[in-house]
Automatic annotation (TrEMBL):
Any one GO cellular component localisation term in the record: plasma membrane
Protein topology in the membrane: Peripheral membrane protein
Record-given protein name: Phosphonate transport system ATP-binding protein
GO function terms (MF aspect): ABC-type phosphonate transporter activity; ATP binding; ATP hydrolysis activity
A Pfam entry, by short name: ABC_tran
Organism of origin: Billgrantia gudaonensis
Length: 297
């Protein structure tokens, strides 16, 4: 049975589709001051992501999930390997070409990375900074098209009424929604999401994951989500990659993520109890939505 909340695309449709992102033998070794070979954060990781697919990265702390996300847009420099976004090898770009290429990659951060003193609207428009002349960015005078699009994005993420509110006045879930709108303002070809629910309560976490996957499906936007909550990943993403000690040890549909596979990735854990807790939380949220809908009717 398909997990609730996940778009209804067939599993492994990515095999037959044209890939937007193609990662080949990506490795990252952090240097050692003692002169030793250093710590290998990623070891020959290879996979492809097609148009419109939401891929979840799971694995224990230190498995290389955040390093992988940040190597793709080169916030962390890979040691070796290729990262093709369309026909462009991001790993081979110089600084000027990399700045241009980063316009094509939207990034949503765990800690939101908003400018607290600016308004919600100004934070969303900051997603256009790579496209406007310096004087426009300095004076925050953006073209009318960008402003209209920002309003549409705020409406889509449910924050239209908060456009003029300062970012530091928002809740955690609202800040994450601003981060989503800002990333989409770039009009990206690829969306990278680093632990979007780590600081959120279970109900808000489901709302944010639902929003991310719905927007990805609407825009046919390939999306990679680094996520620590396994049941949440199984509920919403199309495909899961499991990392352990920097190596890719699982690549398949959420339904194929059995207790044996999870134990191989994480070690022994009561996966049944974890799923039951998640299902109970989801059932309570659905009951609450139904109650509210009934009252509104």
């Amino acid at each position: 049975m398909r997990a609730r909340g996940r778009p209804g695309r067939p599993p492994f449709a990515f095999i037959a589709e044209t890939s937007v992102l193609d990662i080949q033998r990506l490795s990252k070794t952090y240097g050692s001051r003692s002169g030793a070979s250093g710590d290998k954060a990623l070891r020959d990781v290879s996979f492809r992501v097609p148009q419109g697919q939401t891929l979840g990265l799971i694995g224990p702390s230190g498995a290389g999930k955040s390093t992988l996300i940040r190597c793709i847009n080169r916030l962390v420099e890979p040691t070796s390997g290729a990262i093709h976004l369309g026909d462009t090898d991001l790993a081979a770009l110089g600084s000027r070409d990399l700045r241009r290429a980063r316009r094509r990659i939207g990034m949503i951060f765990q800690e939101y990375a908003l400018v607290e003193r600016l308004t919600v609207m100004e934070n969303v428009l900051s997603g256009r900074l790579g496209y406007v002349p310096f004087w426009r960015s300095f004076t925050r005078r953006f073209p009318g098209r960008d402003i209209e699009n920002a309003y549409r994005l705020l409406d889509r993420v449910g924050l239209l009424d908060h456009a003029d509110k300062r970012a530091d006045a928002l809740s955690g879930g609202q800040r994450q929604r601003v981060g989503i709108a800002r990333a989409l303002a770039q009009e990206p070809e690829l969306l990278l999401v680093d632990e979007p629910t780590a600081s959120l309560d279970p109900k808000t976490s489901r709302q944010i994951m639902r929003l991310i996957t719905e927007i990805g499906a609407e825009r046919n936007l390939p999306t990679i989500v680094n996520i620590h909550d396994v049941p949440l990943a199984q509920q919403f993403v199309d495909r899961i990659i499991g990392l352990r000690s920097g190596e890719l040890v699982f690549d398949g549909s959420p339904d194929a993520l059995t207790e044996a596979v999870l134990t191989d990735i994480y070690g022994a854990e009561d996966w049944t109890a974890m799923r039951q807790d998640h299902e109970e939380d989801e059932a309570a949220e659905q009951a609450s939505r139904l109650t509210l809908a009934g009252g509104a009717g």
